Amino acid sequence: xxxxxxxxxxxxxxxxxxxxxxxxxxxxxxxxxxxxxxxxxxxxxxxxxxxxxxxxxxxxxxxxxxxxxxxxxxxxxxxxxxxxxxxxxxxxxxxxxxxxxxxxxxxxxxxxxxxxxxxxxxxxxxxxxxxxxxxxxxxxxxxxxxxxxxxxxxxxxxxxxxxxxxxxxxxxxxxxxxxxxxxxxxxxxxx
Length: 191
Ligand code: MN
Prior knowledge:
Helices cover about 50% and strands about 10% of the residues.
């Protein structure tokens, strides 16, 4: 699997080395374990997105492994897609965010800071409504019928090498690497 930009493209906010480990080791492992898990099952050959969108279709004996590894595969793939440095906050999504939230950075940042332990903070579209939500471990909003628009990974592996225990600083810097053009694209597709 290939990252669509250079590992160092998000510096100085997310450094090359953590990015390389995050993508080539963590993400790759989720992918490989997911593929191994569904191999030989009735899910083999299906898209991860379709599988996670319908948890009831997953055979009980592999459900936990699929949620964890498939979730890790899907959530990271989505995360890589919304990262880009210095993209202006504009487009219909920017207007919708300003209308919905008093202080988006603060509210989204708080969701990311207060996610206890490993997980993610998301901006999603839920039945046409913009919402900020948290998920634990590798749970994904697509399993709850929501459409993800934006996400931050707050697992320690995402920031510890550069920021150590300073999760708030990582989150603050994250706002410099949001690909608002892509987020807008997801929003236009979903609404
Ligand atoms: Mn991660």
